[in-house]
Specification:
44% helix; Beta-Lactamase; alpha/beta; 504 residues; elongated; single chain; 4 domains; 17 helices; 16% strand
Length: 504
């Protein structure tokens, strides 16, 4: 495998007591095996390692990018090299052939590590085995966690528990306890670059593992036996590429359910779904009828990662499928386990969550419609200021239909000429004809019920209705006209409520 100058420096320093380095740092795994520098006219090719004597170096070198120079002997002015490449200086009377062989042995060591990892992959992808053979490379304890923060593998469990005091529960799924724990630490599962964290007073190096957009787990190197080196990040990233393969190959961790998650993520985002994933959705659909749940943090109040919450949902509701979707968690639960009035998804109020729940549906290929319903339930429930934290789409059918009918435009755009005349009247009078008409329509054209709702005498209401119908140019006997007027006036009322909620 390719190495970097940082690895070469530290490994040489372990064998030779007179090693130092200058020049450009190098922690990217890009360097090929070494060669002797013998000819002064020879240029230094990029991404190469050269072993040479100081007195054999040209004063005006031609140096490519990312060159590592391992230099022996007495060092005259090497400024031309320090500014353009990484230079490892070996002082003393070391034999150049011995140094060259040491460099080769370093490459052999990492080649052997890579070969061992690929061998494990070919023979069953044992995650614990892969961690064990990597322990000597990192020289620090290694921990691999899955999407739910449970162990997938650890090299020194006693050290993890006794020295660091890190107690991640491997038996029960206490989602509230985990939320509290994560609130005390910066444990981001969205970062794609290596992440240095301070955990229990000790440093740790974490690299998240992804399969495209799906979070698979996290490799953590704990700073114990030795201090971290610059090259540890690059080695951890390299190792995670093979761990990703191992996780995907693992029959326990990778299953049809993972394919269903990917398919559902595509469906709710409006992307096309290939034949294989459509088949997975079809097979899963046959098992249950479903509801879609959308969970959001209330004003960023939860520290619980979406991946962990997804795993908690799948554990609480057998057969459930859950995953992160942008800033929310999407969960598809068997309908018989998520009936209205039953216990909502994991204690949303205690975790600072709100959730919208769709109507029951049968085909997961229609998940985008269910996702729309769950999203609409959340939006309407929050905008109306209703007490939550659980909002059901069936409770907001009319507001949603009215909002969709308005298409984002103010209600007055849909006013009939008659409604405009009533609006003009209300602007110049203390008596609201629009409110009277809306109440009369809401009471299904019942004068008695409308008079009671308006606290008016029946004759007063009849007199007022005669003026209203005259302005409308209608006696309100046409059901289509009544429906039109009722929808416009109700839409206006809902729009006013939404605007007032936003102002609050």
């Amino acid at each position: 495998m390719k190495l970097c100058s940082d690895i070469l420096y530290w490994r040489l320093k372990e064998e030779l007591n007179t090693v130092s380095r200058k020049g450009c740092p190098g922690s990217d795994l890009i360097l090929s095996r070494p060669e002797f520098y013998l000819d002064r006219t020879q240029s230094f090719e990029k991404n190469r390692v050269y072993v040479c004597s100081a007195d054999h170096l040209p004063q005006d070198p031609r140096i490519g990018e990312n060159v590592c120079l391992i230099c022996l002997g007495q060092y005259w002015n090497l400024n031309a090299y320090y500014s353009r490449c990484s230079v490892i200086l070996v002082e003393g009377s070391w034999d150049i052939f011995r140094v060259f062989n040491l460099v080769q042995e370093i490459f052999n060591r990492y080649d052997s590590w890579e070969e061992q990892l690929w061998s494990i992959l070919r023979h069953g992808a044992g995650l614990s085995q892969m961690l064990d053979v990597s322990r000597g490379i990192f020289e620090n304890p290694l921990l691999l966690t899955g999407t739910d923060f449970r162990y997938l593998g650890v090299t020194e469990e006693d050290y993890l528990k006794n020295q660091l005091g890190l107690q991640l529960d491997t038996q029960t799924f206490d989602v509230e306890k985990m939320a509290t724990f994560l609130s005390l630490h910066d444990m981001s599962i969205h970062v794609r670059e290596p992440l240095l964290l301070e955990l229990q007073g000790r440093r740790s190096l974490s690299v998240n593992i992804f399969d495209q957009e799906e979070y698979l787990g996290c490799l953590t190197v704990l700073e114990g036996q030795r201090a971290f080196r610059d090259s540890d990040k690059a080695l951890a990233v390299f190792f995670c590429k093979l761990l990703r393969q191992a996780i995907l190959q693992n029959p326990v961790l990778s299953s049809t359910r993972a394919a269903v998650r990917r398919a559902l993520r595509s469906v709710i985002s409006g992307q096309s779904v290939d034949f294989e994933h459509r088949r997975a959705l079809c097979l899963e659909s046959e098992k249950n009828t479903w509801v879609c749940v959308k969970l959001l943090p209330r004003s960023g109040s939860t520290h619980l990662p979406g991946a962990y919450l997804s795993a908690a949902l799948e554990e609480r509701y057998p057969g459930a499928i859950a995953f992160e979707s942008e800033d929310a968690v999407a969960a598809f639960l068997p309908a018989d386990q998520a009936k209205k009035g039953a216990e909502p998804p994991p204690t949303p109020e205690k975790l600072g969550l709100v959730c919208g729940i769709s109507s029951v549906f049968s085909n997961l290929y229609d998940a985008n419609h269910a996702w729309f319903q769950a999203s609409a339930a959340l939006q309407n429930g929050l905008s109306k200021g209703d007490s939550g934290p659980v909002y059901h789409f069936q409770d907001y059918l009319l507001p949603q239909m009215l909002s969709a009918a308005l298409a984002g435009r103010p209600s007055w755009v849909y006013y009939t000429e008659g409604l405009k005349r009533l609006k003009e009247h209300d602007g110049n009078s203390q008596v609201s004809y629009l409110h009277t008409l809306r109440t009369y329509l809401d009471c299904n054209l019942s004068v008695t019920r409308a008079a009671s709702a308006l606290f008016l005498h029946r004759s007063t209401l009849l007199d007022r209705l005669s003026h209203i119908t005259a302005m409308l140019g209608s006696d309100l006997k046409d059901p289509d006209e009544c429906l039109t007027l009722g929808l416009v006036l109700r839409a206006e009322l809902e729009q006013q409520r939404t605007e007032q909620s936003v102002l609050k």
